[in-house]
């Protein structure tokens, strides 16, 4: 083979192995090596995020998510991730309120007016969950249709009967139904 050893794709596999072995610094090095050699995928991004989380490198997590958000500023799930990571670094609601306000003022400008309050409610619910405020989170999520939201709200309210009823064939896979 003419590829350098290990090749870029091998770095992705080595990153996964190092993550599984809880060698987070080594995992991060392999993930970054894969990226420097042109391998950029959801797998490498998630692996990098896992390593950074384990290493408590919140500034790097926030920086990574902001770079992604520049490419897709309308992605509400990326905004939710930035909120979670910001609260990991500094559990201050003022900073998060600013993030939510900015997202709602800029990214939502092309959304239907009827959907804008829903986006704010969703992001406020994410912030409440990250702060451990289960009651507020449950209240915010309960207004949304869909099995995942019903499940999450019911679990936070300790209503396990409703949570069990929320798990349907069209619901997300089991691992996504964890709050």
The gist of it:
The protein is mostly helical. It has helices at residues 8-20, 24-36, 42-54, 58-71, 76-89, 93-107, 116-130, 134-141, 147-156, 160-166.
Largest sheet: none
Q: What is the 3D shape?
A: globular
Overall pLDDT score: 84
Main structural class: mainly alpha
C-alpha termini separation? 46 Å
Helix percentage: 55-70%
Low-confidence stretches: none
Tell me the radius of gyration. 19 Å
Helix count? 10
Count of extended strands: 0
Strand content: under 5%
Elements, N to C (H/E) = HHHHHHHHHH
Can you put this structure into words, describing what you see?
The chain is mostly helical. It has ten helices and no strands. The chain is globular. The model has no long low-confidence stretch (mean pLDDT 84).
Outline the fold blueprint:
Elements: H1 8-20, H2 24-36, H3 42-54, H4 58-71, H5 76-89, H6 93-107, H7 116-130, H8 134-141, H9 147-156, H10 160-166
Helix pairs in contact: 1-2, 1-3, 2-3, 4-5, 5-6, 5-7, 6-7, 7-8, 8-9, 9-10
């Amino acid at each position: 083979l003419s590829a350098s050893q290990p090749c870029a794709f091998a770095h992705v596999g080595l990153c996964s192995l190092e993550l599984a072995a809880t060698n987070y610094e080594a995992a991060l090095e392999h993930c970054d090596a894969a990226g420097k050699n042109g391998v950029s995928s959801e797998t490498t991004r998630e692996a990098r995020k896992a390593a950074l989380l384990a290493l408590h490198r919140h500034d790097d997590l926030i920086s990574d998510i902001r770079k992604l958000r520049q490419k897709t500023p309308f992605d509400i799930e990326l905004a939710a991730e930035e909120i979670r990571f910001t609260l990991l670094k500094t559990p201050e609601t003022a900073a998060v309120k600013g993030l939510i306000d900015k997202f709602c003022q800029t990214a939502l400008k092309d959304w239907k007016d009827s959907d804008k309050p829903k986006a704010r409610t969703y992001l406020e619910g994410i912030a409440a969950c990250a702060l451990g405020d289960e009651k507020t989170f449950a209240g915010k999520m309960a207004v949304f249709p869909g099995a995942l939201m019903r499940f999450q709200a019911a679990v936070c309210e300790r209503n396990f009967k409703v949570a069990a009823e929320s798990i349907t064939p069209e619901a997300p896979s089991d691992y996504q139904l964890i709050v």
